[in-house]
Amino acid sequence: MKTAKRILILAPHTDDGEFGCGGSIAKFLEDGADVYYAAFSTAKESVPPGMPENILEIEVKEATKRLGIKPENLLIYGFTVRKLNYVRQDLLEEMVRLKQDLDPDLVFMPSPHDLHQDHNTVAMEGQRAFKQTTILAYEIPWNHINFETRSFIRLEKRHIDKKIYALDAYNSQKMRKYASKEFIMSLATTRGVQIGCDYAECFEVIRYII
After folding, report:
1. Is 59 within 8 Å of 14 (Cβ atoms)?
2. Contact 117/17 with Cβ under 8 angstroms?
3. pTM of this prediction?
4. Please, what is the end-to-end C-alpha distance for the chain in angstroms?
């Protein structure tokens, strides 16, 4: 596979891309790729009590900055959390615009097996919009009953450290067990063991164009 030069991350919510492929984002940026990050909902309706409703928008700006994504490559939409399936066509049309504007050669998105309604909607509409592009689906383990570990990206510890540093920007999400450093590192180690290296992230292959 040729090295991807223009990469687009589709994130239903502001932190999904970092959880699903934050280490790979760090690696691709290090290799000189141009990375774009589209977050479709800032989930302002479900922020923890006492926090400003735009806290996740503030946090995704900091998190993607920590990964090294250019501020102008961060695209934030205002769709309502848990209701992306109500606006499938609007979502698809935004993705088609992204395809026309960015013409990525690799797209990361949630898995079609992801049980969260917003994640599943982005996965399905993403396949429609980017069916002529290589697509890898990232894992969000707490949302999966099934996940096919078909494709892996080898990573170094510095990539996982950067992923952890980026996710640490989400102060509003630190109560979640899956946001812990230990969980993130152990998952990367598990995926690394599967392919005989120290660290990795794994993906379902949705479409692979050589």
Report:
1. yes
2. no
3. 0.96
4. 6
